[in-house]
Amino acid sequence: MTRRVIQLLVGLALYGFADGLCVQAGLGLDPWTVFAQGVSVHTGIGIGWITNIIGLLVLLLWIPLRQKPGLGTVLNILLVGTFIQLTVTVVPVASGLPAQVAMLLTGVVLVAVASGLYIGAHFGPGPRDGLMTGMHARFGWPIWACRLSVESTVLIAGWFLGGTVGIGTVIFALGIGPLVHVALPLFDSRRRWGRRPAGVEGSLEGPLPQ
């Protein structure tokens, strides 16, 4: 249990750091971060704090879907946005295309590693993924349809609000699935420690396994 909790904490912190690198690369973001950035532009509140607030609001949508949060869900709301905010405060914006590309690719790879860590800890889905799986369970829609409808909506809304959509958005969409596919078995606590934790499942805040 202790090792799983540490793995969860490291994974969530690393996820926020990696997402912050993608923000500072300035080449485009995943849909939810585009939305958070757009809201941040209009409110003046830091993108990391907005990410936490959005996570909390999304969690409220679990109530009619009859979803139950886990420890990973709660810590996801508290930690991911916080580490995004710390990263964009400390790490300067990338200057020049080579530096932007390098920072973006580093961020995407680290997001995959972080996803493998916190999913592999098996402490429950993040709030946004729980929304999609809850829609699937409640309405019977395919996961891909739930994901497409939700993420396309927040992406378009974020874009209109001023969030960054670009080549980084495409790279994230195309690359994160295969990268997580590689990373997840490396950090799966059930496989590594030969135990099956009772009553807990892992999921991914962003690139949900199909």
TrEMBL record:
Keyword check for Transport: no
KW Iron (keyword) present: no
UniProt cross-references to InterPro entries, sorted A to Z: YczE/YyaS-like (IPR038750)
TM annotation in the entry: 44-63, 75-95, 101-120, 141-161, 167-187
Keywords assigned: Membrane, Transmembrane, Transmembrane helix
Coiled coil regions, renumbered to chain: none
Name under which the protein is recorded: YitT family protein
Organism: Microbacterium rhizosphaerae
Organism classification: Bacteria, Bacillati, Actinomycetota, Actinomycetes, Micrococcales
